């Protein structure tokens, strides 16, 4: 196998000079650069990425900690869309992704920081990591550039972005009120994630703005899963005290809510109106078509990648959190109430 030393011998230079040429260093003469590049092209030499990383102290690799409380992994309908657009931007910039396994035996013994340093990644991307994870403090204090989604991680080399969850929740309630609804239930987030908490805040603020009563028994805990939405709405229906509309903090819970309504013989959008949050791709297969609040997932993934690239490559870069606007998508599950 051809090595950097073979190239150096043919070019009549040192291996260190060949390494400088490979890494685009400017402190090499023009004629030497041309000679080395010609020999590399003629020989078909492929530089070893590990060796290059040792020379430059950069691996051209981004580590990804991809978690969620339901352990759905890459099947997570919201996170997978963000990750796809993140990967496209990172790849175009010459980086590969390395995924850290959630169930690795070293998870309990080693911190995020230690595992990242062992793999020599240039930066980290965090999705779905809970706010109370003990690893987060070390990441913020480390020198590893880090970008997160829906996790308020902030430090000298760390930044985050999220959707306007409070504004999106207000938008949902404003629309329901516009359609004549005043008795509104909310399927919340039992895990108290940042998105779940912000959507609850938005719900309460919008209800107060419209001077509508907030019924504590109509704020039910969910876990962003289909089953969570099903169980919450089943409990709501069986209580015998029905609202005219239900706002779910996530689309998967809204899908579960639909199933609970069908089981009880209720017509979705007629007997009870329903609105979700996320606008996941799966909704195209769901009937009736769900009215929801859309998160701009592709934009979120692209912006997260661009921001991480800045954190990794721009010295003394000063970053601030990003908030991405949401939008109301009107479909078939909200009906106007005629008073």
UniProtKB/TrEMBL annotation:
Keywords (A to Z) from UniProt: DNA-binding, Transcription, Transcription regulation
Taxonomic placement: Bacteria, Bacillati, Bacillota, Bacilli, Bacillales
The GO terms describing molecular function are: DNA binding
PROSITE patterns in UniProt:
HTH_CROC1, HTH_LACI_1, HTH_LACI_2
> Taking every annotated instance into account, which residue ranges of this chain make up the domain HTH cro/C1-type?
2-34
**Which SMART domains does the protein's record reference?**
HTH_LACI
Tell me which residues make up the HTH lacI-type domain: 2-56
UniProt protein name: LacI family DNA-binding transcriptional regulator
Q: Name one Pfam family in it.
A: LacI
């Amino acid at each position: 196998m051809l090595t950097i030393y073979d190239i150096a011998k043919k070019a009549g230079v040192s291996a260190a000079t060949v390494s400088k040429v490979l890494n685009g260093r400017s402190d090499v003469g023009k004629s030497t650069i041309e000679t080395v590049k010609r020999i590399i092209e003629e020989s078909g030499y492929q530089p070893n990425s590990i060796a290059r990383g040792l020379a430059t102290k950069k691996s051209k690799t981004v580590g990804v900690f991809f978690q969620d409380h339901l352990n759905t992994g890459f099947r997570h309908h919201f996170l997978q869309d963000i990750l796809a657009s993140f990967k496209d931007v990172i790849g175009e910039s010459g980086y590969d992704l390395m995924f850290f396994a959630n169930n690795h035996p070293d998870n309990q013994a080693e911190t995020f920081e230690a595992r990242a340093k062992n793999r020599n990644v240039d930066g980290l991307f965090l999705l779905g990591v809970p706010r109370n994870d003990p690893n987060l403090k070390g990441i913020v204090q480390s020198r590893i550039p880090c970008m997160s989604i829906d996790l308020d991680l902030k430090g000298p080399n760390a930044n985050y972005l999220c959707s306007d969850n409070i504004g999106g929740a207000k938008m949902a309630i404003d629309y329901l009120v516009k359609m004549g609804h005043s008795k509104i239930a909310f399927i919340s987030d039992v895990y108290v994630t940042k998105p779940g908490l912000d959507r609850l805040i938005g719900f309460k603020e919008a209800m107060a703005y419209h001077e509508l009563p907030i019924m504590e028994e109509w704020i039910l805990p969910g876990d962003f899963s289909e089953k969570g939405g099903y169980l919450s709405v089943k409990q709501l229906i069986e209580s015998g005290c029905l609202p005219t509309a239900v706002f779910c903090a996530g689309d998967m819970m809204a899908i579960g809510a639909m199933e609970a309504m069908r089981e009880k013989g209720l017509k979705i959008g007629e007997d009870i109106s329903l609105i979700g949050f996320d606008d996941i791709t799966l909704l195209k297969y769901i009937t009736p078509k769900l009215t929801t609040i859309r998160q701009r997932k592709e934009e979120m993934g692209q912006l997260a990648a661009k921001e991480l690239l800045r954190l990794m490559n721009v010295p003394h870069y000063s970053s601030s959190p990003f908030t991405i606007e949401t939008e109301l998508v009107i479909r078939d599950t909200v009906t106007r109430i005629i008073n």
